[in-house]
Amino acid sequence: MQFIAALIEHLVVGLVALLWLLPIANQLTLIPDVKIADHKEVLIAIGLPVAYVVGMYVDVFASLLSSFIKRALDAYGSTWRSKIFGAHLSSKNGKSYERTAKILKQSPDEAARYLLQLSSREKIARGVYLNFLIAAAVNFLLPTSKYYVPPLLLIAMFSIGVLAWLRLNALTDNFKTHW
Length: 179
Fold this sequence. Notes:
Blueprint: H1 2-16, H2 18-27, H3 40-76, H4 80-85, H5 96-104, H6 108-141, H7 151-178
Helix pairs in contact: 1-3, 1-6, 2-6, 3-6, 5-7, 6-7
Keywords: Membrane, Transmembrane, Transmembrane helix
């Protein structure tokens, strides 16, 4: 189960990395002008393993950036989560995760699966926000690429991605606390 989760996490993050890999490859003329439909089997056979490896590297750097962001926010104050997300992270006065944890204590296998899901979503979110940041920089530096995406749009997506990651991280930590 963990291998499949890691495979999916890294593939998703690696495929989102195409936002910045394609403009770079285009600028270096590594992409020939051919019809993709004529070579889709080759692209899949080569592209998926490359996406997986790129996803692993992005995940490592996203983990480092995420720990920096958390340390910076912790320096801001220990109550940053409630300042960003409100007084409670979940509905019904914050008791939802406490109830979920009590229920899942009866089934450790289900609890482990649930925590794996939370962790997996968090890893995908942090990888995606880093990809948006890199894509914004690449598209700013290479505005002539045929794969151009406006950097301002990518910065907005990065900001949304950071907030999504912070929320998912808070949910995971909240569940661990009540477990």
